[in-house]
Amino acid sequence: MNKTIFEITKMDCPSEENLIRMKLDGISSIANLDFDIPNRKLIVFHKGDVNQIEKSIIELNLSSKRISTEQTDQREFNENSNQKRLLWTVLGINFAFFLIEMTTGIISKSMGLVADSLDMLADSFVYGISLFAVGGTLIKKKRVAKFAGYFQITLAIIGFVEVLRRFFGDEKLPDFSTMIIVSIFALIANGICLYILQKSKSKEEAHMKASMIFTSNDVIINLGVIFAGILVNWLSSSKPDLIVGTIVFVLVIQGAFRILKLSK
Predict the structure, then answer these.
(1) C or N terminus of the chain, fewer CB within 10 Å?
(2) What is d(CA 3, CA 72) in angstroms, rounded to the nearest whole number?
(3) Is 190 found in the same domain as 87?
C-alpha cells in the first residue's frame, strides 16, 4: 500500500472535498481518502502508481501539487458510517439558506444576498450529487453534475444582467439592515457546516474552531456582503452591493465549471 500526500491550496471548504471525492470516484486503486481541510492536505492511500490519481486532482484546477509518496503498512481505515446523514444535514442547511437569502435578497433589493444564495445553492448541488451518487452509477452522477453546472451558470448570467440593469438604472437603495442580519446568520450556518463535517473526520487534533471556519470562501463572501451593507448605509449608494454581487456571481460560475468537469 502507498500513501501519497497532496497539497491543495484552494481546498478551503467541504464543498471542494466533495468535488475531489466525486472526481476520484471509480479509481479502483484508491483504498481511502483522508482530508485535512484547515491545512489544505489530502492523503490518498492507494495501490500501484499515483499518476492517474494526480492527473484527476490537477484537472479540478484547485492549485494542487504532490508532496510525497511512500509505502505504508496501514491496511485498515475507519469509515464514518454517519457520513450520509451528515451530508444530508449540511445539504439541508445550505438549501434552507439558499431559499432564505434568495427571498430576502429579492425583497430587500440586494444583489449581494441573491448572489450569495446562489453560492449556497452551488454547495447544495455538490452535497446533493454526492448523496445521489451513493450506490448509483458513474453515468448517472455525471448527468446530474452536468445539469447542476449548467443550471448554476444560467442563474449567474441572469444575475449579471440584473446587476447591469441596476447599475445603469435608478434603483432604490437595498435594505442594508436586512443584508447585514441575514449574512450574519448565513455566516453562522457556514460555520456550523464546516464544524460538522470537520468533526466527522474523527480527528482529535486541537484545531481552533475559528481557524476551521474562517478558511472558507463562503465565510469570506458572507463578510463581504456584511461590509457591503455597511457601505450602502454609509455612502447612500447601491454600488457596494452591486460590486459584491458581481464578485460572487463570478465565484458561482467558477464553481459551476468545476462541477461540469465532473460530467466529462
Answers:
(1) C
(2) 6
(3) yes
